[in-house]
Amino acid sequence: VQLVESGGGLVQAGGSLRLSCAASGGTFDNYDLSWFRQAPGKEREFVAGIRISGTTPYHADSVKGRVTISRDNAKNSVHMQMGSLKPEDTAVYYCAARLNPYGDRMRFGPSDYNYWGQGTQVTVSS
Asked: Is the pLDDT score of 49 beyond 80?
């Protein structure tokens, strides 16, 4: 599976961005999909994820209420709408896919994911 992110950029605090991830090369609806981020000098961390069915989203506490994740299995894409952005949201954001055809529980660690995009930079200025 190949993943390509888009939608990053520079935004002022309080602003919004919509990140998108296009997938190819696999059976898209066999994968849980998540967004991670990594700020300079910090470990990669889970931001939001969504199960194969698209009915169960998960969010990190740091972004809860500010982020909405959605997926479109027909278009092999996943999106993350981010609002009320803060300078601490500045990071490289990565789309990740985890093969999960049997409905195992959602996972939140980077090592649980099989495929990664190249990342897209989000910079929030104060």
From this structure: yes
